[in-house]
Write a structure and sequence with these properties.
four-stranded mixed sheet; alpha+beta; globular; three-stranded antiparallel sheet; binds protoporphyrin IX containing FE; 484 residues
Amino acid sequence: MLLLNPLFLTVIGLIVGIAYVWQCVTSPLQKLPGPKISLFTSWLLKYHEFRAQRTKYVHELHLRYGPVVRIAPNEASFATLEGIKEIYGSGGSGYNKTEFYNLFTVYGRRTMFSSLTKEEHASRKKILADRYANTNVMKSSSLDGIKERSQRFIERCSKSVGGSLDVFICLHDYAFDCITHHLFHPYGSDSLRHEMDEEVMKQVTFDDSLQNRLVQYYNPPLHKVMGNVLSIFAKPRLTPLADDLVISASGKTEPAQFTLLSRMQDKNYDMQQMEMAAECLDHMAAGIDTTGDALCFLMWQISQPVSFHIQRRLQAEILANPDVPFDKLPYLDAVVSEGLRCFPAIPMSLPRYVPAGGRTINGYFIPENTIVSCQAYSAHRINEVVFPEPELFNPDRWLERTGELDRKRLFFAFASGGRGCIGKHLALAEMKILLKDLYSRYTTLPDYTEMTPSDMEMADQLISSQPRGKKCFLRLEPLTEFKS
Ligand code: HEM
Protein backbone atom coordinates (compact mmCIF):
# COMPACT_ATOMS: atom_id res chain seq x y z
CA MET A 1 0.00 0.00 0.00
CA LEU A 2 2.86 2.32 0.95
CA LEU A 3 4.18 1.87 -2.60
CA LEU A 4 1.04 3.50 -4.00
CA ASN A 5 1.13 6.44 -1.61
CA PRO A 6 1.80 9.63 -3.69
CA LEU A 7 3.63 11.34 -0.84
CA PHE A 8 5.91 8.35 -0.36
CA LEU A 9 6.60 8.20 -4.11
CA THR A 10 7.37 11.94 -4.23
CA VAL A 11 9.84 11.63 -1.33
CA ILE A 12 11.57 8.65 -2.99
CA GLY A 13 11.69 10.55 -6.30
CA LEU A 14 13.23 13.56 -4.59
CA ILE A 15 15.87 11.47 -2.82
CA VAL A 16 16.84 9.69 -6.05
CA GLY A 17 16.91 13.03 -7.92
CA ILE A 18 19.09 14.73 -5.30
CA ALA A 19 21.44 11.74 -5.17
CA TYR A 20 21.78 11.87 -8.97
CA VAL A 21 22.50 15.60 -9.04
CA TRP A 22 24.99 15.19 -6.18
CA GLN A 23 26.78 12.43 -8.04
CA CYS A 24 26.98 14.64 -11.17
CA VAL A 25 28.25 17.77 -9.45
CA THR A 26 30.89 15.88 -7.48
CA SER A 27 32.06 13.79 -10.45
CA PRO A 28 35.73 14.33 -11.42
CA LEU A 29 34.43 15.11 -14.94
CA GLN A 30 32.89 18.25 -13.44
CA LYS A 31 36.40 19.77 -13.69
CA LEU A 32 36.51 19.33 -17.47
CA PRO A 33 35.47 22.18 -19.75
CA GLY A 34 32.15 21.53 -21.46
CA PRO A 35 28.50 22.56 -21.59
CA LYS A 36 26.79 22.42 -18.16
CA ILE A 37 24.06 20.16 -19.53
CA SER A 38 26.64 17.47 -20.35
CA LEU A 39 27.27 17.09 -16.62
CA PHE A 40 23.71 15.88 -16.08
CA THR A 41 22.54 14.18 -19.25
CA SER A 42 23.72 12.66 -22.51
CA TRP A 43 20.46 13.48 -24.30
CA LEU A 44 21.84 16.38 -26.28
CA LEU A 45 24.71 14.25 -27.57
CA LYS A 46 22.26 11.47 -28.46
CA TYR A 47 20.00 13.95 -30.24
CA HIS A 48 22.88 14.92 -32.52
CA GLU A 49 23.84 11.28 -33.01
CA PHE A 50 20.34 10.41 -34.18
CA ARG A 51 20.49 13.33 -36.64
CA ALA A 52 23.78 11.96 -38.05
CA GLN A 53 25.58 15.07 -36.77
CA ARG A 54 27.63 13.80 -33.83
CA THR A 55 31.00 14.56 -35.43
CA LYS A 56 30.15 18.19 -36.17
CA TYR A 57 28.53 18.65 -32.74
CA VAL A 58 31.58 17.34 -30.88
CA HIS A 59 33.79 19.51 -33.05
CA GLU A 60 31.72 22.61 -32.23
CA LEU A 61 32.21 21.80 -28.55
CA HIS A 62 35.97 21.60 -29.10
CA LEU A 63 35.94 24.96 -30.85
CA ARG A 64 34.01 26.45 -27.93
CA TYR A 65 35.63 24.76 -24.94
CA GLY A 66 39.09 23.74 -26.18
CA PRO A 67 40.90 20.50 -26.96
CA VAL A 68 39.51 18.65 -23.91
CA VAL A 69 35.76 18.60 -23.53
CA ARG A 70 33.11 16.77 -21.50
CA ILE A 71 30.37 15.64 -23.87
CA ALA A 72 28.18 13.55 -21.53
CA PRO A 73 28.14 12.71 -17.78
CA ASN A 74 30.39 9.71 -18.44
CA GLU A 75 32.12 10.73 -21.66
CA ALA A 76 34.95 13.05 -22.69
CA SER A 77 36.55 13.92 -26.02
CA PHE A 78 40.22 14.83 -26.56
CA ALA A 79 41.72 16.57 -29.58
CA THR A 80 45.31 16.48 -28.34
CA LEU A 81 48.43 14.51 -29.11
CA GLU A 82 48.61 13.42 -25.48
CA GLY A 83 45.02 12.13 -25.70
CA ILE A 84 45.76 10.17 -28.88
CA LYS A 85 48.93 8.64 -27.45
CA GLU A 86 47.39 7.72 -24.10
CA ILE A 87 44.01 6.41 -25.28
CA TYR A 88 45.11 4.54 -28.40
CA GLY A 89 48.79 3.87 -27.80
CA SER A 90 49.42 3.15 -24.13
CA GLY A 91 50.51 -0.44 -23.59
CA GLY A 92 50.66 -0.90 -27.41
CA SER A 93 47.00 -0.92 -28.35
CA GLY A 94 45.60 1.55 -25.85
CA TYR A 95 42.45 1.22 -23.76
CA ASN A 96 39.78 -1.44 -24.33
CA LYS A 97 36.94 -0.73 -26.75
CA THR A 98 33.44 -0.07 -25.39
CA GLU A 99 30.21 -2.01 -26.04
CA PHE A 100 29.58 0.35 -28.97
CA TYR A 101 31.60 -2.21 -30.94
CA ASN A 102 28.98 -4.89 -30.16
CA LEU A 103 27.13 -3.35 -33.09
CA PHE A 104 29.87 -4.64 -35.34
CA THR A 105 29.68 -8.31 -34.41
CA VAL A 106 29.03 -10.42 -37.49
CA TYR A 107 26.97 -13.64 -37.52
CA GLY A 108 26.98 -13.44 -33.71
CA ARG A 109 30.79 -13.49 -33.63
CA ARG A 110 33.41 -11.00 -32.64
CA THR A 111 35.82 -10.11 -35.40
CA MET A 112 39.22 -8.48 -34.97
CA PHE A 113 37.56 -5.05 -35.26
CA SER A 114 34.74 -5.78 -32.81
CA SER A 115 36.84 -7.57 -30.18
CA LEU A 116 36.81 -5.53 -27.00
CA THR A 117 39.85 -6.58 -25.04
CA LYS A 118 43.55 -6.46 -25.91
CA GLU A 119 43.96 -10.22 -25.53
CA GLU A 120 41.08 -11.14 -27.83
CA HIS A 121 42.28 -8.61 -30.37
CA ALA A 122 45.94 -9.64 -30.28
CA SER A 123 45.24 -13.31 -30.95
CA ARG A 124 43.17 -12.50 -34.07
CA LYS A 125 45.56 -9.82 -35.31
CA LYS A 126 48.44 -12.28 -35.12
CA ILE A 127 46.72 -14.30 -37.84
CA LEU A 128 45.54 -11.49 -40.11
CA ALA A 129 48.20 -8.77 -39.98
CA ASP A 130 50.60 -10.47 -42.39
CA ARG A 131 48.26 -10.02 -45.40
CA TYR A 132 47.90 -6.27 -44.87
CA ALA A 133 51.62 -5.61 -44.42
CA ASN A 134 52.98 -3.22 -47.04
CA THR A 135 55.28 -5.94 -48.37
CA ASN A 136 52.27 -8.12 -49.15
CA VAL A 137 50.15 -5.29 -50.58
CA MET A 138 53.03 -4.24 -52.86
CA LYS A 139 53.47 -7.74 -54.37
CA SER A 140 52.75 -7.62 -58.07
CA SER A 141 49.99 -10.25 -57.78
CA SER A 142 48.18 -7.96 -55.34
CA LEU A 143 48.94 -4.64 -57.08
CA ASP A 144 48.10 -5.97 -60.57
CA GLY A 145 44.55 -6.62 -59.37
CA ILE A 146 44.20 -3.02 -58.14
CA LYS A 147 45.67 -1.66 -61.39
CA GLU A 148 43.26 -3.78 -63.44
CA ARG A 149 40.28 -2.43 -61.46
CA SER A 150 41.57 1.10 -61.87
CA GLN A 151 41.55 0.54 -65.65
CA ARG A 152 37.94 -0.64 -65.42
CA PHE A 153 37.15 2.60 -63.59
CA ILE A 154 38.80 4.53 -66.44
CA GLU A 155 36.61 2.61 -68.92
CA ARG A 156 33.53 3.85 -67.03
CA CYS A 157 34.97 7.38 -67.20
CA SER A 158 35.58 7.20 -70.94
CA LYS A 159 32.00 6.05 -71.55
CA SER A 160 30.72 9.10 -69.65
CA VAL A 161 32.57 11.72 -71.73
CA GLY A 162 30.08 14.24 -73.08
CA GLY A 163 27.80 13.67 -70.08
CA SER A 164 28.67 13.13 -66.44
CA LEU A 165 29.43 10.25 -64.12
CA ASP A 166 28.18 9.48 -60.62
CA VAL A 167 31.61 8.85 -59.15
CA PHE A 168 30.08 8.11 -55.75
CA ILE A 169 28.77 4.84 -57.20
CA CYS A 170 31.81 4.07 -59.36
CA LEU A 171 34.33 4.75 -56.59
CA HIS A 172 32.46 2.45 -54.24
CA ASP A 173 32.40 -0.17 -57.01
CA TYR A 174 36.15 0.27 -57.35
CA ALA A 175 36.77 -0.03 -53.61
CA PHE A 176 34.49 -3.08 -53.46
CA ASP A 177 36.28 -4.84 -56.34
CA CYS A 178 39.70 -4.01 -54.84
CA ILE A 179 38.89 -5.28 -51.36
CA THR A 180 37.25 -8.50 -52.58
CA HIS A 181 40.34 -9.03 -54.77
CA HIS A 182 42.50 -8.74 -51.67
CA LEU A 183 40.19 -10.93 -49.60
CA PHE A 184 39.60 -13.84 -52.00
CA HIS A 185 41.06 -13.53 -55.48
CA PRO A 186 40.12 -15.19 -57.90
CA TYR A 187 36.65 -15.14 -56.33
CA GLY A 188 36.37 -11.36 -56.03
CA SER A 189 33.65 -9.11 -57.45
CA ASP A 190 33.50 -7.18 -60.74
CA SER A 191 30.95 -4.51 -59.92
CA LEU A 192 32.52 -1.95 -62.25
CA ARG A 193 31.37 -4.12 -65.16
CA HIS A 194 28.48 -6.21 -63.85
CA GLU A 195 25.27 -4.82 -62.45
CA MET A 196 24.57 -7.86 -60.28
CA ASP A 197 27.84 -7.32 -58.42
CA GLU A 198 27.07 -3.62 -58.18
CA GLU A 199 23.86 -4.50 -56.34
CA VAL A 200 25.94 -6.15 -53.61
CA MET A 201 27.99 -2.98 -53.19
CA LYS A 202 24.87 -0.83 -53.09
CA GLN A 203 23.38 -2.95 -50.33
CA VAL A 204 26.40 -2.28 -48.13
CA THR A 205 26.87 1.38 -49.11
CA PHE A 206 23.26 2.56 -49.17
CA ASP A 207 22.63 1.07 -45.74
CA ASP A 208 20.51 3.47 -43.73
CA SER A 209 20.42 1.76 -40.38
CA LEU A 210 22.06 4.44 -38.19
CA GLN A 211 19.01 5.18 -36.00
CA ASN A 212 17.99 1.54 -35.69
CA ARG A 213 21.48 0.54 -34.59
CA LEU A 214 21.75 3.43 -32.14
CA VAL A 215 18.60 2.16 -30.40
CA GLN A 216 20.19 -1.29 -30.36
CA TYR A 217 23.29 0.18 -28.70
CA TYR A 218 21.59 2.38 -26.13
CA ASN A 219 18.72 0.08 -25.25
CA PRO A 220 19.25 -3.56 -26.27
CA PRO A 221 16.15 -4.88 -24.38
CA LEU A 222 13.90 -2.28 -26.07
CA HIS A 223 15.45 -3.14 -29.41
CA LYS A 224 14.76 -6.83 -28.79
CA VAL A 225 11.12 -6.31 -27.82
CA MET A 226 10.31 -3.50 -30.26
CA GLY A 227 12.66 -4.52 -33.10
CA ASN A 228 9.88 -5.25 -35.63
CA VAL A 229 7.88 -2.10 -34.89
CA LEU A 230 11.05 -0.02 -34.86
CA SER A 231 12.09 -1.26 -38.28
CA ILE A 232 9.01 0.47 -39.77
CA PHE A 233 10.54 3.84 -38.79
CA ALA A 234 14.26 3.06 -38.72
CA LYS A 235 15.63 0.46 -41.10
CA PRO A 236 17.71 -2.41 -39.68
CA ARG A 237 20.99 -3.37 -41.33
CA LEU A 238 20.31 -6.14 -43.85
CA THR A 239 22.92 -7.26 -46.36
CA PRO A 240 21.78 -10.67 -47.71
CA LEU A 241 23.64 -10.34 -51.03
CA ALA A 242 26.90 -9.48 -49.27
CA ASP A 243 26.31 -12.37 -46.85
CA ASP A 244 25.89 -14.79 -49.76
CA LEU A 245 29.07 -13.50 -51.37
CA VAL A 246 31.33 -13.87 -48.33
CA ILE A 247 29.85 -17.15 -47.14
CA SER A 248 30.24 -18.71 -50.56
CA ALA A 249 33.71 -17.22 -51.21
CA SER A 250 35.09 -18.27 -47.83
CA GLY A 251 34.25 -21.90 -48.61
CA LYS A 252 36.19 -21.87 -51.89
CA THR A 253 39.51 -23.68 -52.25
CA GLU A 254 42.91 -22.44 -53.39
CA PRO A 255 42.52 -18.68 -53.16
CA ALA A 256 45.61 -16.73 -54.34
CA GLN A 257 48.50 -16.76 -51.91
CA PHE A 258 48.40 -12.99 -51.15
CA THR A 259 44.73 -13.06 -50.05
CA LEU A 260 43.37 -12.89 -46.54
CA LEU A 261 41.38 -16.05 -47.18
CA SER A 262 44.49 -18.08 -47.95
CA ARG A 263 45.92 -17.04 -44.59
CA MET A 264 42.75 -17.89 -42.66
CA GLN A 265 42.41 -21.26 -44.39
CA ASP A 266 45.88 -22.24 -43.16
CA LYS A 267 45.27 -25.30 -41.00
CA ASN A 268 47.57 -23.93 -38.28
CA TYR A 269 44.92 -21.38 -37.34
CA ASP A 270 41.98 -23.75 -37.14
CA MET A 271 39.37 -21.17 -38.17
CA GLN A 272 35.79 -22.30 -38.90
CA GLN A 273 34.21 -21.23 -42.21
CA MET A 274 31.72 -18.90 -40.49
CA GLU A 275 34.55 -17.26 -38.55
CA MET A 276 36.34 -16.60 -41.84
CA ALA A 277 33.14 -15.33 -43.46
CA ALA A 278 32.52 -12.96 -40.51
CA GLU A 279 36.04 -11.57 -40.72
CA CYS A 280 35.73 -11.16 -44.52
CA LEU A 281 32.37 -9.37 -44.31
CA ASP A 282 33.83 -7.02 -41.76
CA HIS A 283 36.88 -6.20 -43.87
CA MET A 284 34.72 -5.87 -46.95
CA ALA A 285 32.49 -3.30 -45.27
CA ALA A 286 35.56 -1.57 -43.78
CA GLY A 287 37.20 -1.43 -47.20
CA ILE A 288 34.28 -0.19 -49.34
CA ASP A 289 32.93 2.94 -47.70
CA THR A 290 36.19 4.25 -46.27
CA THR A 291 38.23 4.21 -49.46
CA GLY A 292 35.23 4.99 -51.67
CA ASP A 293 34.14 8.00 -49.62
CA ALA A 294 37.67 9.31 -49.07
CA LEU A 295 38.26 9.31 -52.85
CA CYS A 296 34.85 10.82 -53.51
CA PHE A 297 35.29 13.79 -51.13
CA LEU A 298 38.81 14.35 -52.43
CA MET A 299 37.88 14.32 -56.13
CA TRP A 300 34.93 16.60 -55.47
CA GLN A 301 37.21 19.05 -53.68
CA ILE A 302 39.86 19.24 -56.40
CA SER A 303 37.14 19.63 -59.04
CA GLN A 304 35.96 22.91 -57.46
CA PRO A 305 37.12 26.21 -58.98
CA VAL A 306 38.79 27.14 -55.67
CA SER A 307 41.04 24.05 -55.83
CA PHE A 308 41.42 23.81 -59.55
CA HIS A 309 45.07 24.89 -59.46
CA ILE A 310 45.69 21.83 -57.26
CA GLN A 311 44.18 19.52 -59.86
CA ARG A 312 46.35 21.14 -62.56
CA ARG A 313 49.51 20.73 -60.48
CA LEU A 314 48.66 17.11 -59.76
CA GLN A 315 48.15 16.44 -63.49
CA ALA A 316 51.46 18.16 -64.26
CA GLU A 317 53.35 16.01 -61.75
CA ILE A 318 51.81 12.81 -63.05
CA LEU A 319 52.33 13.66 -66.72
CA ALA A 320 55.93 14.72 -66.15
CA ASN A 321 56.74 11.46 -64.37
CA PRO A 322 55.00 8.67 -66.28
CA ASP A 323 57.48 6.02 -65.14
CA VAL A 324 57.62 6.98 -61.47
CA PRO A 325 55.66 4.53 -59.30
CA PHE A 326 52.45 5.76 -57.66
CA ASP A 327 54.01 5.71 -54.18
CA LYS A 328 56.96 7.93 -55.16
CA LEU A 329 55.10 11.05 -56.31
CA PRO A 330 55.39 13.74 -53.59
CA TYR A 331 52.52 15.97 -54.73
CA LEU A 332 50.15 13.02 -55.16
CA ASP A 333 51.10 11.94 -51.64
CA ALA A 334 50.44 15.46 -50.32
CA VAL A 335 47.04 15.62 -52.06
CA VAL A 336 45.99 12.28 -50.58
CA SER A 337 47.17 13.28 -47.08
CA GLU A 338 45.29 16.57 -47.30
CA GLY A 339 42.19 14.77 -48.55
CA LEU A 340 42.30 12.44 -45.57
CA ARG A 341 42.98 15.33 -43.21
CA CYS A 342 40.01 17.39 -44.38
CA PHE A 343 37.66 14.48 -45.07
CA PRO A 344 38.73 11.54 -42.89
CA ALA A 345 36.50 8.63 -43.87
CA ILE A 346 36.14 7.73 -40.19
CA PRO A 347 35.92 11.24 -38.76
CA MET A 348 34.21 10.49 -35.46
CA SER A 349 35.01 9.40 -31.91
CA LEU A 350 36.50 5.94 -31.48
CA PRO A 351 35.24 5.15 -27.95
CA ARG A 352 37.40 3.44 -25.33
CA TYR A 353 37.06 2.76 -21.59
CA VAL A 354 39.49 4.27 -19.08
CA PRO A 355 41.18 1.29 -17.35
CA ALA A 356 40.84 0.33 -13.68
CA GLY A 357 42.16 2.96 -11.28
CA GLY A 358 41.50 5.84 -13.68
CA ARG A 359 44.07 7.82 -15.64
CA THR A 360 45.24 11.41 -15.88
CA ILE A 361 45.01 12.78 -19.43
CA ASN A 362 46.02 16.35 -20.29
CA GLY A 363 46.15 17.13 -16.58
CA TYR A 364 42.59 15.94 -15.84
CA PHE A 365 41.94 12.88 -13.70
CA ILE A 366 39.46 10.65 -15.53
CA PRO A 367 37.89 7.87 -13.44
CA GLU A 368 37.87 4.23 -14.57
CA ASN A 369 35.13 3.19 -16.99
CA THR A 370 34.66 6.71 -18.30
CA ILE A 371 34.26 6.65 -22.08
CA VAL A 372 37.06 8.62 -23.73
CA SER A 373 37.82 9.20 -27.37
CA CYS A 374 39.51 11.29 -30.02
CA GLN A 375 37.95 12.11 -33.36
CA ALA A 376 40.03 12.63 -36.50
CA TYR A 377 37.83 15.50 -37.68
CA SER A 378 38.85 17.59 -34.66
CA ALA A 379 42.42 16.30 -34.24
CA HIS A 380 43.04 17.54 -37.81
CA ARG A 381 41.65 21.02 -37.16
CA ILE A 382 41.91 22.16 -33.59
CA ASN A 383 45.63 22.91 -33.34
CA GLU A 384 46.21 25.87 -35.64
CA VAL A 385 49.95 25.89 -34.98
CA VAL A 386 50.25 22.43 -36.49
CA PHE A 387 47.51 22.94 -39.11
CA PRO A 388 47.24 26.68 -39.87
CA GLU A 389 44.01 27.70 -41.65
CA PRO A 390 42.58 24.26 -40.92
CA GLU A 391 39.51 24.65 -43.15
CA LEU A 392 41.67 25.41 -46.18
CA PHE A 393 42.38 22.50 -48.51
CA ASN A 394 46.09 22.98 -48.94
CA PRO A 395 48.28 19.99 -49.93
CA ASP A 396 51.38 22.22 -49.75
CA ARG A 397 51.33 22.02 -45.97
CA TRP A 398 52.45 18.38 -46.29
CA LEU A 399 55.50 19.37 -48.39
CA GLU A 400 56.93 21.75 -45.81
CA ARG A 401 59.81 20.53 -43.67
CA THR A 402 58.92 22.65 -40.66
CA GLY A 403 56.39 20.98 -38.40
CA GLU A 404 56.48 17.71 -40.36
CA LEU A 405 56.68 15.50 -37.28
CA ASP A 406 53.85 17.30 -35.49
CA ARG A 407 51.57 16.99 -38.52
CA LYS A 408 52.25 13.28 -38.81
CA ARG A 409 51.65 12.72 -35.12
CA LEU A 410 48.30 14.50 -35.16
CA PHE A 411 47.20 12.78 -38.36
CA PHE A 412 44.52 10.41 -37.09
CA ALA A 413 42.63 9.37 -40.26
CA PHE A 414 43.74 5.75 -39.81
CA ALA A 415 43.70 6.06 -35.99
CA SER A 416 46.94 4.92 -34.34
CA GLY A 417 48.50 2.31 -32.06
CA GLY A 418 47.90 -1.44 -32.21
CA ARG A 419 44.22 -1.00 -33.14
CA GLY A 420 44.78 1.50 -35.90
CA CYS A 421 43.67 0.70 -39.43
CA ILE A 422 45.07 -2.58 -40.66
CA GLY A 423 44.03 -1.74 -44.24
CA LYS A 424 46.01 1.52 -44.42
CA HIS A 425 48.61 0.38 -46.98
CA LEU A 426 45.97 -1.21 -49.15
CA ALA A 427 43.77 1.90 -49.00
CA LEU A 428 46.64 4.22 -49.89
CA ALA A 429 47.67 2.03 -52.82
CA GLU A 430 44.08 1.96 -54.11
CA MET A 431 43.71 5.71 -53.80
CA LYS A 432 47.01 6.64 -55.41
CA ILE A 433 46.77 4.18 -58.29
CA LEU A 434 43.31 5.44 -59.21
CA LEU A 435 44.18 9.13 -58.92
CA LYS A 436 47.32 8.64 -61.02
CA ASP A 437 45.40 6.81 -63.74
CA LEU A 438 42.52 9.27 -63.71
CA TYR A 439 44.35 12.60 -63.63
CA SER A 440 46.84 11.52 -66.30
CA ARG A 441 43.86 11.25 -68.65
CA TYR A 442 41.10 13.56 -67.47
CA THR A 443 40.14 16.85 -65.93
CA THR A 444 37.20 16.56 -63.54
CA LEU A 445 34.55 19.26 -63.05
CA PRO A 446 31.44 19.30 -60.86
CA ASP A 447 28.11 18.78 -62.63
CA TYR A 448 25.64 21.04 -60.82
CA THR A 449 22.78 20.07 -63.10
CA GLU A 450 22.62 16.73 -61.27
CA MET A 451 23.26 17.83 -57.70
CA THR A 452 23.86 20.69 -55.28
CA PRO A 453 26.84 21.31 -52.99
CA SER A 454 24.68 20.24 -50.02
CA ASP A 455 24.68 16.69 -51.43
CA MET A 456 28.37 16.62 -50.51
CA GLU A 457 27.91 17.67 -46.89
CA MET A 458 29.36 15.18 -44.46
CA ALA A 459 26.72 12.94 -42.81
CA ASP A 460 27.63 10.46 -40.07
CA GLN A 461 27.06 6.78 -40.55
CA LEU A 462 27.53 4.48 -37.58
CA ILE A 463 31.27 5.13 -37.52
CA SER A 464 32.18 6.47 -40.96
CA SER A 465 30.80 9.43 -42.88
CA GLN A 466 29.31 9.79 -46.35
CA PRO A 467 28.19 12.59 -48.64
CA ARG A 468 24.64 13.35 -47.48
CA GLY A 469 23.13 13.00 -50.97
CA LYS A 470 24.96 9.70 -51.65
CA LYS A 471 25.79 10.97 -55.13
CA CYS A 472 28.61 12.93 -56.73
CA PHE A 473 28.36 13.85 -60.40
CA LEU A 474 31.52 14.89 -62.18
CA ARG A 475 32.11 15.76 -65.83
CA LEU A 476 35.25 14.24 -67.29
CA GLU A 477 37.12 16.10 -69.99
CA PRO A 478 39.92 14.18 -71.72
CA LEU A 479 43.35 15.75 -71.42
CA THR A 480 44.59 16.38 -74.91
CA GLU A 481 48.25 16.13 -73.97
CA PHE A 482 47.86 12.58 -72.59
CA LYS A 483 49.94 10.02 -74.46
CA SER A 484 49.20 6.34 -73.88
C1 HEM B 1 40.80 5.60 -46.58
C2 HEM B 1 40.53 4.42 -46.14
C3 HEM B 1 40.45 3.99 -44.70
C4 HEM B 1 40.37 4.73 -43.56
C5 HEM B 1 40.33 6.25 -43.44
C6 HEM B 1 40.30 3.81 -42.44
C7 HEM B 1 40.25 4.18 -41.10
C8 HEM B 1 40.25 3.30 -40.03
C9 HEM B 1 40.20 3.69 -38.65
C10 HEM B 1 40.12 5.12 -38.14
C11 HEM B 1 40.22 2.55 -37.90
C12 HEM B 1 40.12 2.47 -36.36
C13 HEM B 1 38.66 2.24 -36.01
C14 HEM B 1 38.36 2.10 -34.54
O1 HEM B 1 39.26 2.08 -33.70
O2 HEM B 1 37.17 2.00 -34.22
C15 HEM B 1 40.28 1.44 -38.80
C16 HEM B 1 40.32 0.14 -38.40
C17 HEM B 1 40.27 -0.91 -39.29
N1 HEM B 1 40.29 -0.83 -40.67
FE1 HEM B 1 40.41 0.85 -41.80
N2 HEM B 1 40.34 2.54 -42.92
C18 HEM B 1 40.43 2.60 -44.30
C19 HEM B 1 40.50 1.54 -45.17
C20 HEM B 1 40.47 0.23 -44.80
C21 HEM B 1 40.56 -0.87 -45.71
C22 HEM B 1 40.76 -0.79 -47.24
C23 HEM B 1 40.46 -1.99 -44.97
C24 HEM B 1 40.54 -3.37 -45.54
C25 HEM B 1 40.45 -4.45 -44.92
C26 HEM B 1 40.31 -1.60 -43.57
C27 HEM B 1 40.17 -2.46 -42.50
C28 HEM B 1 40.19 -2.09 -41.17
C29 HEM B 1 40.12 -3.05 -40.07
C30 HEM B 1 40.01 -4.56 -40.20
C31 HEM B 1 40.18 -2.30 -38.89
C32 HEM B 1 40.20 -2.84 -37.46
C33 HEM B 1 41.63 -2.97 -37.01
C34 HEM B 1 41.79 -3.53 -35.62
O3 HEM B 1 40.82 -3.52 -34.83
O4 HEM B 1 42.90 -3.96 -35.32
N3 HEM B 1 40.33 -0.23 -43.51
N4 HEM B 1 40.30 1.92 -40.10
